[in-house]
Amino acid sequence: MRIAVVGSGYVGLVTGVCLADFGHDIVCVDKDAAKIEALSQGIIPIFEPGLSDLVSTNVAAGRLTFTTDLPTAVGQAEVVFIAVGTPSRRGDGHADLRYVYDVAREVAGALNGFTVVATKSTVPVGTGDEVDHILRAASPEADFTVVSNPEFLREGAAIDDFKRPDRIVIGIEDERAREVMTEVYRPLYLNQAPLQFTNRRTAELIKYSANAFLAMKITFINEVADLCEVAGANVQEVARGIGLDNRIGSKFLHAGPGYGGSCFPKDTQALVKIGQDFGSPMRLVETTVSINEQRKRAMSRKVIAACGGDVRGKTVGILGLTFKPNTDDMREAPSIDIIRGLQDRGARIVAYDPQGMKAAEKLVDGVKFAPNAYSAAEGADVVVLVTEWNEFRSLDLSRLKALMQTPVFVDLRNVYRPQEVRKHGFHYFSVGRPEAGGMGSVSEAAE
Ligand code: NAD
Question: What's the mean pLDDT in 358-365?
Fold first, then answer.
């Protein structure tokens, strides 16, 4: 099949590359000429494990090309995916749909023959109707149908998620789209990934509901962690105890500094707005948003408390900046609030992240970036493990301690066993676990 993917960011690029790998003929479109130029030269603008190899293979096989020429790409396509950003609208938290609608206007004039226009971007209920309206108004004669096909991939595991999804949700209003979309995903269908066909509005809401539910689950365990700290319980044992219940499941029950990233914060906020717009408030989600916002800042207070209540003039070594490991994405990362909170109280920040420092430079001022974890700890009064990159899971604790001014370790991801770190002479603080040592945990290896 000939498919155009408009927007070659995380989702568009992964979608295009994976569909090419399925054997389709893909052209990835972006308005960012520098990005397209780089991609055409085999330079991948994002860090995503396995992506670079997959791009090279499919470009070499002639199934994948990159262009800024949207009309030609769309004119030749049977399916056009819209995969542009839908960030939070400044000021009110609504999803900003201008990029989606811009693309719809551009696509309208280029449609040629029956075309399925599938929105992969995460968009509020009713956006498909508006895209349909834009296309129809601009090209009354065109033969097309608008589909909602939300994407559930996770950064850091995007290729695997795309190729082995739990489900593929497809919202259609025209039966002809069922056949076309089944053909797009045929290789996955053969692998028995369930294709859930539904109507367009339902598909749009499935995406927001999924993200909001996961964000609530994280926020729930974070609140339980706070309770554990004052009640003398261990959140990892609680998470294990509830997660083994199949009705609950063990995923997304790792207490930490609050959720961040390019999706959960904006999607929870957007769902709150959608509920308000329809007069059907999403109160659980509203509360989740507010708890999570407070939590990110609260983590800086936790570090300050670990330092005896004052960080003025002290050096804080930050290990990990991205919102999660295996990505270079810094959008809404808790590290930003933590760093600002500490700087406001007079701390000096030295930070290291395996992939996120380039993006972080633009988001935080006055931070010194170190070339590795041990450099970040040099002369520090405290190290704070913010993102659980693999390389932070087995630090040489003796070496780390020897480098530091004061051996204080704040582990916001519960990566280490308290006894193990304390054995090396650290004052160790983690999230939702007994500070005085306690029993430790048999389930400490984070997911
Ligand atoms: P992104 O910012 O990485 O990429 C968007 C791309 O679209 C950019 O390269 C931009 O230049 C391009 N673009 C914008 N307007 C354009 C236009 N008129 N013509 C051509 N290209 C244009 O965004 P992303 O992270 O890939 O997210 C895209 C959508 O997918 C969002 O709605 C997001 O919520 C959703 N989503 C993201 C993820 C994720 O993990 N990042 C997961 C699931 C869903």
Answer: 97
For residue 125, report the phi and psi dihedrals to the nearest 5 degrees.
Answer: -55, 130
Per-residue DSSP letter, 255: -
Tokens of 252: 């997304």
Please tell me the distance between residue 99's alpha carbon and the centre of ligand 1 in angstroms: 9
What is the best residue among 10, 37, 69 to mutate for testing ligand 1's pocket, by most ligand atoms within 8 Å of CB?
Answer: 10
Q: 113 with 143: CB under 8 angstroms? A: yes
Q: What is the pLDDT of residue 189?
A: 80
pTM check: above 0.90: yes
The response to whether residue 204 sits with its C-beta less than 6 Å from ligand 1 reads no
Distance, in Å, from the CA atom of 9 to the CA atom of 28, rounded to the nearest integer, reads 10
Alpha-carbon gap, residue 74 to 72, rounded angstroms: 6
Closest Cα to atom 44 of ligand 1: 151
Q: Which CATH number fits domain 2-198: 3.90.79.10, 1.10.1130.10, 3.40.50.720, 3.30.70.1350?
A: 3.40.50.720
Its sign, for the CA torsion 251, 257, 261, 266, is: positive
From CA 79, how far away is CA 147, in angstroms rounded? 10
**Is the pLDDT reported for residue 343 higher than 70?**
yes
pLDDT digits (tens, 9 = 90+) for 66-122: 999 999 999 999 999 999 999 999 889 899 999 999 999 999 999 999 999 999 999
Q: Is 153 in the pocket of ligand 1 (CB under 6 A)?
A: yes
Among 156, 61, 171, 63, CA closest to 125: 171
CATH architecture of 199-447: 3-Layer(aba) Sandwich (3.40)
Rounded Cα distance, 203 and 125, in Å: 8
d(CA 130, CA 2): 25
